[in-house]
């Protein structure tokens, strides 16, 4: 006794056996759904076009994703097309829905083909879905074309940079690798992540430095109150502004010699140090 057909087989058979719709039948169903929200009409309209979904989904099978999930995403695009379709336009529903079905499947592939999110611009999408085909076509020529020349020609055809073609070519040439994958088959083997070195500070160090920086800034603002107006101008120009002014430039601004600016600055810094130590004895240690 043969086993019963699988649900997927039954679904595919039902989709392929669904009757084709004439233009008049299609228009009547689309009008019923748009004007009266007749769900029975929507079901009949979409059921008649599921074979189109299956055919488009089959074009993406080489990306290694489950066929039933590709079909499900194509069905989502079919429903989106039904929601947006205008039956009064002189266009068949199959022609209109093809774009929505393909776009829905393409988005699904881009989201799930790799854990690394690829580009989402129109050029990047076109490159992702056409790179293999264009590369195969160029390799079928009578003359051997170099990899660099191939990248340049593909970039020009798709409208992206040559670097984008190189990056996408590298992505399509290899599968994702887990950082926890062992480097050898032996027990206790080191993992890939063991060889990743991070030179950035740890999160707690970043937070601690930010808190200390805010505290020191508050201390400095308090200490600046001990300076005279001229001393404050010189310290700001020489030490606190983004572009530290020269002694000569500050002297011209204040109408004094650069040696006098140096003397006032030195005295102001001593006053700042004294004010900081008076209010915060541990200021010079942090």
What would your notes on this structure say?
The protein is mainly alpha-helical and 286 residues long. The protein has 3 domains: 7-112, Four Helix Bundle (Hemerythrin (Met), subunit A) (Up-down Bundle), CATH 1.20.120.1810; 122-173; 203-285, Winged helix-like DNA-binding domain superfamily/Winged helix DNA-binding domain (Arc Repressor Mutant, subunit A). The protein contains 13 helices and no strands. Helix 4 (50-58) crosses helix 6. It is elongated, with a radius of gyration of 35 Å. The relative contact order is 0.05. The mean pLDDT is 79.
Number of strands: 0
User: What's the shape?
Assistant: elongated
Structural class per helix/strand content?
Answer: mainly alpha
**Count of discrete structural domains:** 3
- Strand content range: under 5%
Main beta sheet, described? Answer: none
Spans of at least 5 consecutive residues whose pLDDT stays below 50 are: none
Order of helices and strands: HHHHHHHHHHHHH
Q: From the 3D structure, determine the CATH topology of the largest domain.
A: Four Helix Bundle (Hemerythrin (Met), subunit A)
Helix content: 55-70%
Radius of gyration: 35 Å
Please identify the top-level CATH class of the largest domain.
Answer: Mainly Alpha
């Amino acid at each position: 006794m043969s086993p019963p057909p699988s649900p997927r087989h039954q679904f595919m058979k039902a989709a392929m056996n669904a009757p084709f719709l004439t233009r008049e039948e299609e228009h009547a169903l689309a009008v019923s759904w748009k004007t009266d929200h007749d769900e029975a009409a929507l079901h009949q309209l979409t059921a008649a076009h599921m074979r189109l979904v299956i055919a488009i989904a089959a074009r993406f099978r080489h990306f290694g994703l489950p066929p039933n999930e590709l079909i499900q995403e194509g069905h989502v695009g079919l429903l989106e097309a039904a929601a947006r379709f205008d039956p009064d336009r002189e266009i068949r529903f199959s022609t209109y829905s093809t774009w929505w079905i393909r776009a829905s499947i393409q988005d699904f592939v881009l989201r799930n083909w790799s854990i690394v999110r690829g580009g989402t611009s129109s050029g990047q999408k076109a490159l992702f879905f056409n790179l293999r085909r264009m590369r195969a076509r160029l390799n079928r020529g009578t003359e051997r074309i170099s990899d660099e020349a191939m990248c340049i020609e593909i970039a020009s055809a798709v409208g992206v940079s040559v670097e984008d073609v190189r990056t996408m070519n590298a992505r399509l040439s290899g599968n994702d690798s887990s950082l926890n994958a062992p480097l050898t088959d032996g027990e206790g083997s080191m993992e890939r992540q063991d060889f990743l070195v991070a030179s950035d500070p740890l999160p707690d160090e970043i937070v601690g430095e930010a808190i200390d920086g805010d505290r020191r800034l508050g201390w400095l603002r308090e200490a600046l109150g001990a300076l005279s107006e001229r001393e404050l101008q010189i310290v700001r120009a020489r030490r606190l502004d983004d572009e530290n002014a020269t002694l000569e430039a500050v002297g011209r601004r204040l109408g004094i010699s650069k040696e006098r600016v140096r003397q006032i600055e030195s005295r102001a810094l001593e006053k700042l140090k004294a004010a900081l130590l008076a209010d915060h004895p541990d200021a010079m240690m942090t």
